[in-house]
Design a protein that fits this description.
By secondary structure, the chain is an alpha/beta fold. It is built from 13 helices and 16 strands. The chain folds into 2 domains: about 120 residues, Enolase-like, domain 1 (2-Layer Sandwich), CATH 3.30.390.10; about 280 residues, TIM Barrel (Alpha-Beta Barrel). It binds 2-phosphoglyceric acid (2PG) and magnesium ion.
Length: about 400
Amino acid sequence: MSKISSIEGRILYNSRGSKTIEIDVKSEGKFLGRVCAPSGASVGKYEAVSFPNEKPEESLRIIQENSQKFIGLESSDLKGIHDALKSLDNSTNYSKIGGALAFAVTIAAMESASKASGQPLFKTLSSESSFKFPFPIGNILGGGAHAGPGTPDIQEILICAIGSKTIEDAIETNLAVHKELRSVLENEDSSFTNGRGDEGGWAPKLENQKALEISAKACENLGFTLGKEVSLGVDFASSTQWNEEKQKYVYDRSGFENSTGEQIDFAANIIEKYKLIYAEDAVHEEAFEDMAELTAKFPNILITGDDLTVTSKNILTKAIDSKSCNAAILKVNQAGSLYDALEFASVAHQNNIKLITSHRSGESTDSQISHIGIATKSKMLKVGVVGGERIAKLNELLRLSEHDLIRGMAEI
Ligand code: 2PG
Ligand code: MG
């Protein structure tokens, strides 16, 4: 047991160079939990607001003026810390204090508690006695809101080494595919600049289908069979394409539009053709019935909600009632506090919804989400493949492989 003795913050920058907040929670004057909040570019309509009036400085001022509400609380008392935040902001989306503040305060407190108890963070967050590694899944080719003009409309083509038996092999395999993809892209287009999107995936001037073909080719060049050693995934991030007025998905860069039915066929065709293991937000964030069609059609593929479910237990309950997805992204900052996110995880577990703990496109170099992925029994950890802020999460998994309590890979 250790009591919070101080809580302080500062303004720093995320990987996109935007301002964010970092919070230090200390217990007993010495156990430091330090967390810097990430932020998204393709943001769900119903996610927590990052900062009041988009100003990290306001969140900082609020925590500085209210630090006494936290001092003296047990650092391990996640509910107590969550309640103290809620006493400052009773809105449903943290619009008064900022979801980024709720994210940083709650995770920093848990990290402080874990240091005080001498246990790793994942163990502090879970009462289980044995754990498995989630499969790292990462962006090898980026478009949409994460890359510039000429890149694919779909946001992310992802790699996951589903055949790997160890975390070391899973990470190494993803890195090898990312690297091979560069060679394939260079062969296809001698003017390819090796430019990368926000999450470290290559950002070539390519149309969606060609980008998928080339990604599959990189896997095959390494002797892999799709669906065996490795599988591709796609984050369609379809709310980016959805045009409310037209009631159509507008693929600006490729120059076509999909009606609702055409979008379902478009996604289904990609899932089948490229033998995807993973399809995220294949339709827009309010299309619960359309997602349900894909979920019924592909029971063995992770049909995943991100903007659809926004790490909200109430929205997930709605998605479960309409059978919209069999998997869901867990992003703590979509929910706000870690307490909210763990409640979401428990609703997911009670209903056989598979979890994928995820980074944001604007990240910090922290690595607590690797622990959160393990503690929440996530099947996958979506944290990218390369880039300092992505590698930080993967390197933490490698450090954790020295730990006796984690054995083997999750069953997808
Ligand atoms: C997503 C995320 C992370 P962003 O859509 O899944 O890949 O992107 O953080 O921009 O929302
Ligand atoms: Mg997404």
